[in-house]
């Protein structure tokens, strides 16, 4: 097996008394699309900051390209691209200046910066906006520019922290398409997200994080198969009565979860479970059978939904 | 590398490419050169008003045993002050904006650039800006016949040192600011510094309070520029130079460390 691109062993990050990352083990192989999934505060961003060599691990070992971030930070950063959670685009520069000034930070020659800027504007579908001021761009365009900027040094590892948070559905799909192309070109992607669909779309493999720990690891499909049932029956009862119905659903499917707004019944055959609900004389206001998703995996693993 | 070596020479604290930061600023100010130019006028207006008004009332002042007219006494001090202003303006408000709001440094630190590159680059840029004002000011002094000899050119490297000192202090201080309201502190400190650094009257006039004046970095800068303009050199100037150099180095190290603590948590 080749040397993993990222190897973390018992990685810990503390801020004073607060433990953000509580000893995680992660390996990412070249060419993989790897995801950290979890709610806000799970320790995803702290992990990403350690990997991007801008935050020192409190304990444990971390190797990127086989190098130690503490002694070889600049060398590692020269080979990675970072898309931060909040855009750090330079609002005093135009779109194209953002790209080529950033290239200069990597000591690229002016000619090389110009060549790559033209290519990346094309890739980010921003060629027409080359001269624009950053503030005039839409949210989706800014995100694409952030990604383009992170690619100026032709990184073999791209780190994306919540790449599509705050974007409308169409902008998200455009972005996913661009990331998918990068993956096809052999760029290793590591991303954090709290969107299930994003993790399912983009990640070959992911870890679910909760309170600084890894609670599960695998491909999106294997996680769903391992931790959830094939189907989920979603029931809505009239407001405020979900709890009392939860009792009457007992024994249905393999498990039931009462959420504030609905009750979930995990069952391999959702339709059969629904018939049983009617058979027991309950009349939900609405009922829906759907396939299990990573959201369910998270709920079953932690007892909380990702939105919390 | 052993832990001890890492503590003394942290790899991130090596200065490798501070000029990249300056390149970024040149790209920005190519469009905003008017803002840069405007900073030159304040000390110039002071000089003209001193020359026209006070100069005729005050008469001659002694510099290193030499009698010089009042406007020739004040002009080097205003030149030192313009180098200070240029350096401070850039290393406080602009740095605060880039540090806390525009997050320019966060972006830079995701590249091979380190905290020392960022700090040195910013201070270097502020120094350049101070130097531009100093050159402009010296040209005006020459045109007004306020320069005495070719020694006055030595005022330029001296102003670079003044700029370095104030830019480093300004940058280091700004890293402690909580927000824009703290900028008022800068203005509050600059005014007395400008007025009471033996700028407008000789240090002898301060009597038993002279020691307070000697704490002011601007005082040491003014003494050096004045000596250069008159071409009157003495051993005491070594002390002024060392004071500014020591302060600059201390503030520079603090500045780089602060960037590391703030942005590389």
Strand arrangement, major sheet of chain B: 1-2
Task: Give start-end ranges of low-pLDDT stretches of chain A.
Answer: none
What is the H/E string of chain B?
A: HHHHEEHHHHHHHH
Share of helical residues of chain B: over 70%
Work out the strand percent of chain B: under 5%
Q: How would you sum up the major sheet of chain B?
A: 2 strands, antiparallel
Strand content of chain A: 25-35%
SSE order of chain A, one letter for each helix or strand: EEEHEHEHHHEHEHEEHEHEEHEH
Mean pLDDT of chain A: 90
**Widest sheet: strand ordering of chain A:** 5-6-7-3-8-9
Rounded to an integer in angstroms, the radius of gyration calculated over CA atoms of chain B is: 19 Å
Query: What's the CATH class label of the largest domain in chain A?
Result: Alpha Beta
The oligomerization state is heterodimer
Give a topology summary.
The complex is a heterodimer of chains A (308) and B (265).
Chain A: E1 6-15, E2 18-28, E3 33-37, H1 44-51, E4 59-64, H2 69-77, E5 80-83, H3 95-105, H4 110-123, H5 139-150, E6 157-161, H6 169-184, E7 188-193, H7 196-202, E8 205-210, E9 213-218, H8 220-227, E10 231-236, H9 242-248, E11 255-258, E12 263-267, H10 270-279, E13 286-291, H11 294-302
Parallel strand pairs in A: 3-7, 3-8, 5-6, 6-7
Antiparallel strand pairs in A: 1-2, 1-4, 8-9, 10-12, 10-13, 11-12
Chain B: H1 3-8, H2 19-29, H3 33-38, H4 41-58, E1 60-63, E2 66-69, H5 70-101, H6 104-109, H7 115-143, H8 155-174, H9 183-195, H10 210-215, H11 217-230, H12 236-263
Antiparallel strand pairs in B: 1-2
